[in-house]
Amino acid sequence: MDSLKCLNNECINLLHNNKLLQPLIKSELKSSLLSEVQIEKEFEISAINEFKSKFKITNETELEDFLVQNDLDHKQFNDLALFPLRTKKYSTDTFGNKSEARFLERKDNYDMVIYSMIRVGNLHLCRELFFKVSEKEADFGEIASRYSEGFEKTTRGIIGPHAIAQAHPSLRQRLRKSKIGEVSKPFQVNNNFLITRVESFETAKLDNSMKEKMCEELFDEWLNSESIKILKGLISQIKPSSQSKGELS
Length: 249
Known about the structure:
The structure is a single chain. It is built from ten helices and four strands; from the N terminus they run ααααααβααβαββα. α5 crosses α10 and α6 crosses α10. A hairpin with a 2-residue loop joins β3 and β4. A four-stranded antiparallel beta sheet has the order 2-1-4-3, with helices on both faces. It is elongated and about 70 Å long. The C terminus is likely disordered. By secondary structure, the chain is an alpha+beta fold.
């Protein structure tokens, strides 16, 4: 890339030794690719206006002040505004044909769950609480507020919605096997004993939003791979005498 030609051997070594070279290459590679992406005028105008709204820019005077304060020109401002849209378009156009396979590989990671949980450190107490909530002698939320020892104490035991993949493996397995509304028997995760109840479970679907997410993930992985190749090429061009001892170890 032309933008990297300004780097001499000393700069390359300095950046590489401080683990800054690969991120720089990745950023420049992405910027170079996205600079060629054309956006339809109506979407371009909409994206720029949204960007202005984000920074409370309502007129040309405020725009000019913003540019001066942030050391930007109009093109740089517009490029920043259009960056997400260009990323979405490039990744979808380039990796759209691989998005379904990617989704099927990682589908389980995107299933969403909301559940209630009671977490205590004493098994005997956990069994007592399980009996109370399973027999409807007490409300799950009230018990969680009173006895639970985790952050869920402040939410009446409610956790989520979040991707089920974020949960501890043992908890994740229990949630997947549970029916909605069913109170689980006490089970142990690390040093705690848990009671859970699944409130809702949403299976991930390959809709437009998910397709875009898969494409952007694939794009980012490709950028990582390509930037590492470019990095190795730059390093290999440096004369051995100019390299720091052990920098490639």
